[in-house]
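Lesson 9: reading folded outputs for more than one chain in a single document. The general rule is that every protein is listed as its sequence immediately followed by its C-alpha cells, and records are never interleaved. Here is the first one.
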Amino acid sequence: MKYHLEFDIEFKKNEYPGRFIAFEGIDASGKSTQVELVAEKLKAQGRVVSVRNPFEGEIGKFIRQILSGEKPLPAVTLQYLISANRHAQQMEIIEDLKKGQDVIIDRYIWSAVAYGILDKGSYDFEKTATWLLIEQSILSMYHQFIMPDHTFYLDISASEAIERLSKMEKTKEIYEDAGKIRKIVSIYQYLVKTYADQFVVINGDQPVEKVTEAIVKQIVLP
C-alpha cells in the first residue's frame, strides 16, 4: 500500500551554555588538524574544550575496521553503524555542554547525509538527501540530536584532496578513492547550497593558520 506523507523538519538547537562545533568536509580537507588547532585557541581564551572523535568506543573501533577494508560490510550497514555510534556519544556531548564546556567534533550529521547519498549511488541528490534526513535521520535517532552551533565546511577541490592523500603514510580507506572523492565533493556542494544556513564555508586551500583564524572569527562564545 502507498501512503503520501509530508513533513516539516526543525533541527534541534543547542540550548546549553557550552558551544557545539562540528567540522565537515571531504577526506584530507584538514578537519582533524583544525579540530586540534581551534581547540587550542579556545583553551587559550579560558574555555574548557572537549574534543570528540566520530568513531569512539567499541562501535567506533568496528567502524574503523570496516573503513580500512578489514571488515567488509554493505555500505548501508556501515551508515547505520555510524548512526548508532553517534547516538551513543550524544549523552556525553550533552553532559559536557551542560557544564559549559565547548564540544568540537570531526564529522557529524551532515557526513551521514553526504556519504549516505554516495552509498546509495544516486545522482538525484535532492530526493536521496530528503529520504536520508527523514527516514534515516530526523524521524528516528537524529530527531533528538542537538545540531551544532557552528558547522564549518572546509572547502577544497577533489584534485587537492587526492594529492594530499597520496602524500599521507596511512592505510587507504574505502572512501579514499578518486572517483568517490569527486562525487562526494559534488554532494557536499549540493548540501551546502541547499542548507546554506547550516554551514559556514571556509576555504580549506589557505595556509593552515589562515584557516584557523577564519574559523575562530566565526565562533560566538556565550
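And here is the second record, again sequence then C-alpha cells.
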Amino acid sequence: MTRRIKVTFDKFYYTKNVSDEDIILKSRELQVDIAIDLMGYTNNYRKNIFINQSAPLQINYLGYPGTTAHNLDYIIADKYLIPKENQKYYFEKIIYMPDCYQPSDSKRPKYEEKNTNGEFNYSKFNFKFCCLNDSSKINPLIFNSWMQILKKTKNSALFLLEANKYCKDNLINEFYKENISSERLIFLPKLPYQEHLIRFRSFDLFLDTFPYSAHTTANEALWSGVPLISLSGQSFQSRVSSSLLHHLTLDSLITYNIKDYKDLAIFLANNPLKFKEIKTKLINAISTSNVFDTKIYTGNLEKAYKAIYEKHQSGLDPQDIYLN
C-alpha cells in the first residue's frame, strides 16, 4: 500500500523519526495548503503538528471517528453519519460527501472471484454468522445477543477473529453457561489481506458490534458480498456500517435497538428465500452504487478540497460544505 501511494505523489517524505517541529517547518516551507489528520486520538498520535498549525486548513479524516476539538477546521462525513441535529457536537465544520464518507479500493479481489482454498470450507453448518471486528469491540450486550441468535437458528455457527487465549477462553466459557456447544464458536487466525477478503465469501451474514461498529471491516464484508446487520446509534463510531448500508440502499439491514437486531438475524437465517433476496440486492448494489467506485469518490473529495480552499482564499471562515 505504501508503494502504491508513494508513486502517485511528486514528493513523498518519510517522517517517522522527524520531530513535530521539523515537520511543521517543512510543511510551511513547502507551502502546504491543506493538512489531513488521519489519526486523531489513536496510538502514536502526534497532535502537536496540528495544534501548532502545520497548514492554513486542517481536516479530520477517516482515522478517528469523532471530533478532535483542536485546530482542525473540517471533518469529512456524510448526511447519515452526522445528521443535521448532531452538528452541534462537532468542533469542526462538516464536509458532507454525497455518498458514504468512507473511501474504497476498487482494486481489491471481487466477490465473484472463486474461493479455491479448501481451508475456508465450513459447509458442515447450515448458516454461518461472522464478526471479524477486533475483539475489543465485543461487549456483553452484543455477545449475549449472538448467543440468543444461535439458540434460535439450527446448525448455525459464529466465526470470530482470534485475539488471545484469555479472550477465547472467556467467550467459550459464556457458551458453556448458556448450554451452547463450543463447536459452534470458531476462532479464525489473522490472514494476509488478500486471503482475508477471500475468506469472507465463506460466511453468510455479518453481525456487527455496538456501540463501536465495523468500519473498514464492514466495507470489506459488503464488498465481498456478505450482508451485514448493523445496530445504529447516535455517535459517529456507531453509524459507519449503517452509513454503508444506507448508501447501498440496504436500509432494511439497519436496526435501532437490540431486539430488532436479534430478530432480524434470526429471521434471515431461518428464511432462505428472504436471505437470498437480500444477498442479490447487495450484489447488484456493489456494481451499481457509488459506494465502491474509487474514481467517483476521489473526484468528490477533490471537489471538497477545492471548495474549502476557495473559501479560505476569499477570507471566509470555515462553514459546512454540502457536495451534490
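What the second record shows: The chain has two domains: 9-104+293-322, 118-288.
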